[in-house]
Amino acid sequence: MHPFRTHTCNDLRKADVGQSVKISGWVHRKRDHGNLMFVDLRDHYGLTQCIMEIDAEGFAAVESVRSESVVTVEGLVVARSADTVNPDLPTGEIEVRIESFTVQSAADELPMPVFGDVDYPEDIRLKHRYLDLRREQMHKNIVLRSSIVSSIRRRMVDQGFLEYQTPILTASSPEGARDFLVPSRMHPGKFYALPQAPQQFKQLIMVAGFDRYFQIAPCFRDEDARADRSPGEFYQLDMEMSFATQDDVFEAIEPVMHGVFDEFSDWEITPAPFPRIPFREAMLKYGSDKPDLRNPLEILDVTEIFRGSGFGIFAKAIESGSVVRGVPAPNTGDQPRSFFDKMNDWARTQGAPGMGYIIFENAGGKGPIAKNLGEERVAQLRELTGLGDGDGMFFACDKENGAAHLAGLARDKVGQDLDLLEKNAFRFCWIVDFPMYEWDEREKCLDFSHNPFSMPQGGLEALESMDPLDVLGYQYDIVCNGIELSSGAIRNHKPEIMYKAFEIAGYTAEDVEEQFGGMLNAFKFGAPPHGGIAPGIDRIVMLLAHEPNIREVIMFPMNQQAEDLMMQAPAPAALRHLRELSIRTIEPEE
Fold this sequence. Notes:
Layout: E1 20-32, E2 36-42, E3 47-53, H1 59-64, E4 70-79, E5 94-105, H2 122-127, H3 129-132, H4 136-158, E6 162-163, E7 181-183, E8 191-193, H5 199-207, E9 212-221, E10 232-242, H6 246-264, E11 268-269, E12 276-278, H7 279-286, E13 300-301, H8 303-306, H9 312-319, E14 323-329, H10 337-349, E15 356-361, E16 364-366, H11 368-373, H12 375-385, E17 392-398, H13 400-417, E18 425-426, E19 428-432, E20 437-440, E21 445-448, H14 459-465, E22 475-480, E23 483-490, H15 495-504, H16 509-523, E24 530-533, H17 537-544, H18 575-580
């Protein structure tokens, strides 16, 4: 017989009754029922109930062992009585009568329990992640993650994509976030960077003639944590394809996304092809380039109704270049006044002076805005919005970006507060036609708004003849339930267009050659048109696991301060290491 197990803790069934077996695992919990001791034994695969009589040889060892100790049990499989069968457990019709009990590794007193659903503070969970991962839900999440990654790989290979690995130590690149730098011992004073993404390498793979590439790629960015973003590192399905249009990329990735979500969820999923929403339309209708399409509310531009109106605050702001966005709030006429006051207070927490509203009733409207706006304009508002008696509307007045931002947040809040979001659904969309450039108000200059390596729509002619802020790129995001899963683009593969695109953003030809010389030089020797995308693995798993926080689907995540509490990183470097690297540290000023 095997020294540790003949079966896993999920194998045994009623057909095994009468067999002598050996199973190993962790003591999940013990229950003393007087003459009988029950021990639930758990391993990776499941759980088996074991029993021992109080007068049996070796009972003292079973009685004294702590939870989470690793033990081996040898004994006879017996059937449970009808009234003790557990229908929720695959092994619920049997139990193992303990004849031999060996402690392989005794557990000390636990800093946190594994059994049960007690919600422990995150710092304790992360410090003792190996215990946290033993908990049922965490274990399920990580197994789900592995299954999802395997499914994605299979689906990509089935479409003719091949997996290649790209370097981890590379050069710094302006991908939009801070780099993690790695000092070079052999080249004092010089640094590698960990890749924010394999962006340049995957494009070079296309230049090298490999037609369809993918990789489950680690990416490293020195960013602050969010609920849907882990600091430090993350994984993405990195893919690139040659001789491809934007439509080709969509047609390649949609079956993967739809297939994976269909495989691992029983929720309704947006059928392919996914809706395509231009960036400017998304900002107008949803106030966000990451719209949650489960929410039926659409924002409306009501600027002209307020222009020159008796509602002086908005009218004056419009003359100064502001716009007014309206957020419908259906069936709120019977809501208490506190509902609207709380919305006003909430708007102040978002940095706005407040949020005005109208309640439509008796073919007119009520509230301070309605009173000052006048009956005729209120009627125009009803006609434009399609709202009627018993409906309300909130208003955001600011410059275009500010109004869109506040209205988008308000749309989300109203949809949630009124319980309007579609249930049990994954709603996908593409956001397309991103502007190539945006105005950086702080630096007072133009900058890339998305991916600097994207092909502008219209090519070189557009860059030379159009206002840069009107130039659109072949850039796209895929969004699900308000979460951006990925950004992608058709790439700029022509050196002359790259020089011009970066020139508009303030880079000289020398800057481009210095920072992107490897890719730029490659393009001078024949580059195919190519494009790709990189959906985030962590976010996909987070959605499918129905977890609100990305750290619940990462095996060993950092905390929100980018610290690994379990391994105690980051930590000061030893002086000998600093000397080897020719580095001296400087304490930050208080």
